[in-house]
Known about the structure:
3 domains, mainly alpha, 17 helices, 47% helix
Amino acid sequence: MATFKATIKKDKQRSDKTWNVLIRFTHERKVRYISTTMYVTKKDLTASFKIKNQQVIDKCDDLIRIYRDKVNKLNLEINSMDIDSVIDYLKSKDDKSGIDFIAFSRKWCAAHTEIKGIRNYLTALNSLCMFFGRETILCSEITVQKLKEYEEYLSDKKRAQSLYPSAILRLFMEARNYYNDEDNDIIRIKQNLSKYKPKQQNVAEKRALSVEEIRNVFNIPYTGIKVRGMDNRRDLAKDCFMLSFCLMGMNSADLYNATEYDGEHITYYRTKTKDRRNDNAKMIVKVHPIIKPLIEKYRGKERVFNFYERFSSMGDLNRSINIGLKGIGRELGIDNLQFYSARHSMATIAINKVGINKYIVNDMLCHVDSSMRITDLYIQKDFAPVNDANFKLIEYMFG
């Protein structure tokens, strides 16, 4: 009877203090070892050198399941095959893929709750299930043509038409990385969707405000109404909008999380992209005198701003700001005023009205220009140009 077991060879420790995870295959009292792309350290092993890391165990179980399925297809033929022939068969490519994409994706989302916007991934999955008309969708069914049809299905929801397919594409790539083992010629998910490009939405047209509208938001009077001793949502929203515009589009997550302020500069690491950037998305913003009183108004004890003392999460802060801005928008006649309008308007006015170079604005937004990624590796970051540009923008706006 053919058997499989995940193991390591105790005496085969590598120079980097790791062991390669192996699948031990036993057939007619003979043993062979199939190498995997997984490696473990001492902390992943028990005292008797058995694997205890559950993530590694789960991946090994998936591999073993693949191997068992292939052996079962041989039926009685396996009895006439020597062990090396069986190993060659196990390593051969198998084009069939019966992987449940939805089940994998939901499990992946549950394990990555720290990702900003993970709820959008789950909403996208629900939407995809409605498109297919069922809860089970195989990875083999996620094709370029199907994603284009899904885009058309979302044509009346412009934001979703851009957001949801992008989320599905990311989840599909995670599934490929998890199930495929190219080193061992195990390709369970064949297609790679490299020819599919999610539809891009022009969000700037919707969110950017005019110079006059920005000035109206800044000049709208406070109500002065206090709720449990603190500013009401409407007045808080005005202040946060002003902070964002004058701090180079700083978003609510970073207003909530920022911890470094020396009285002249705020240093923070952009929450949205710090895990995807070599420089951790570092930003140093010089505070213009016009905004200093507002910073002092909201000074926190342990962080730059005290929003963490009032709100349990950055999501709660963002929701409160947007509720307040809707009221301000109604007062000023600005449809669907959103917090991100401060960031989009800052960039739009800087380029179109103040004449600031697009690449400087790109840095002000803490974006990465893909054409400059290699060059950036050789250059020490200088934040003076973006801060000079920001001061120029503020002085254009408010004198």
